[in-house]
Write a structure and sequence with these properties.
Layout (H helix, E strand, L loop, with lengths): L1 H17 L3 H23 L7 H26 L4 H24 L5 H17 L7 H30 L4 H19 L4 H37 L1 H8 L2 H11 L6 H19 L1
Helix pairs in contact: 1-8, 1-10, 2-7, 2-8, 3-6, 3-7, 4-5, 4-6, 4-10, 4-11, 5-11, 8-9, 9-11, 10-11
Length: 276
């Protein structure tokens, strides 16, 4: 199920990459995802449990991080390839989570986690090797994926804390999505209605698919995180980096040999880091 979750996540990111209006596509996807989650809560007659005030607070903060991530996601994919952007976002997030965990929990890093973090950083550096582009272009391509990585780390940490105090995964995810929506509305406000009509006409079926994929994929991951522990769940979820490489070839995305190699190294490093 966790590997299936990884596949769904990489798939909806791919749908975002190929969308013409990425900001509006992400907004439509997340709004429709909320409807999927509400339908699941009603069908299963689940109580809207967030683990009290503590769980609610973490869910709200997670929503702020989620909103920032979704904005950075749409802007990042407008500048860089799927495999490069995706590997930086997911692998970089693992490094941030690791560093924050060491700081907050006063843990001692071990050889395995240090090796994984080093591999992620080396892999990210390799994805930037492209002799056809200037250093300034490379830096501009890195900005949004790196920022997205920080936001991903933030909402992962908040989700974990909310689950610890008893939050129900679907209620937690829905709360976070609702909080993130204003960020997406704000960045999509220019010529809003015309752009919305255009994206619904062009990408109607893709929105239905991607909204279901993001909702199902993340809810499955949260259940896995709750039942199997973070190391096992996150390591399997990071297999999505390898799926993103495969999808890059399927959509004929411009990707260099160094980007493929770098993405693979990032993926392996993220797996090692999550197990460490």
């Amino acid at each position: 199920m966790l590997i299936g979750s990884a596949l769904l996540h990489a798939a909806w990111n791919t749908a975002t990459k190929v969308a013409r209006d990425k900001e509006m596509f992400v907004l439509a996807t997340i709004f429709t995802s909320c409807l999927w989650v509400i339908a699941a809560l009603v069908a299963q007659e689940k109580s809207f449990e967030l683990g009290g005030r503590t769980g609610l607070n973490f869910a709200i903060v997670a929503g702020f991080f989620e909103g920032g991530y979704l904005v950075a996601l749409s802007k990042g994919f407008a500048k860089t390839s799927l495999a490069k952007g995706y590997s930086i976002m997911r692998g970089g997030a693992m490094v941030v989570v690791w560093v924050v965990s060491l700081w907050l929990r006063a843990e001692h890093f071990n050889f395995l986690s240090l090796t994984g973090a080093f591999m992620v950083l080396i892999g990210i550096a390799l994805t930037g090797i492209d002799r056809s582009k200037s250093a300034a272009t490379h830096r501009s391509e890195l900005f949004w994926p790196v920022l997205a990585a920080v936001f991903i780390a933030g909402y992962h940490l908040c989700y974990g804390e909310s689950l610890k105090v008893g939050a129900e995964p679907k209620a937690l995810y829905l709360t976070s999505l609702f909080v993130s929506l204003p960020f997406l509305f704000f960045t999509s406000r220019k010529m809003f209605w015309g752009r919305l009509r255009a994206v619904l006409n062009e990408d109607k079926l893709k929105i239905v698919f991607s909204s279901f994929a993001t909702a199902a994929g993340f809810i499955i991951f949260l259940y896995g995180l709750k039942q199997s522990g973070p190391g096992y769940a996150i390591s399997l979820r990071n297999s999505s980096i390898f799926f993103s490489i495969w999808f890059s070839f399927l959509i004929n995305d411009k990707i260099t040999k160094f980007q493929v190699l770098g993405s693979v190294i990032v993926g392996v490093g993220a797996l090692i880091l999550s197990l460490g």
